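Let us work through a complete example step by step.
Step 1: write down the sequence.
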Amino acid sequence: MRGMSTSAITSDAITWNAPDDDHPARTASMRSYSAVAKGDLAEWLTVYAEDAVLEDPVGPSMFDEHGRGHHGHAGLSAFWELAIAPIATFEFEINDSFANPAGNTCANVGRIRTAFSDGSSTTTDLIMVYVVDDGGLVTSMRAYWEPDRTMASFRHA
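Step 2: predict the structure and record it as tokens.
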């Protein structure tokens, strides 16, 4: 990751082309991407508060039929098994990040490339909004993306 002054996280799976000042929500988002890229559920959960809510994507979807989000570590773990564990590799490209001066929220604009074990792949363009508590743990993550657009990007091996 380019110029990550906020932490010592490094990964070939993450390209950070956005502001990278010492901001708690940005740091949390970077930690989240790193854990996902490594396939480390336990590490990923350490980024999130016990009562966190994750909406990925926001609204009803194949991952959340009623669009109510995934609640707490149990809900996040279930989301991981459904949406993250089946993916062989993740590549994150963050091209911009907007943070509020109070320091508890950021919105990252980027792209996630996913590859499956058979070599097929998809690309998701999205905006991810992170809210953190005073301890820097994510209390809310909302990802805005369109499943139909992602499925249109599907490439066979």
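Step 3: interpret the result. Residues 1-10 have pLDDT under 50 and may be disordered.
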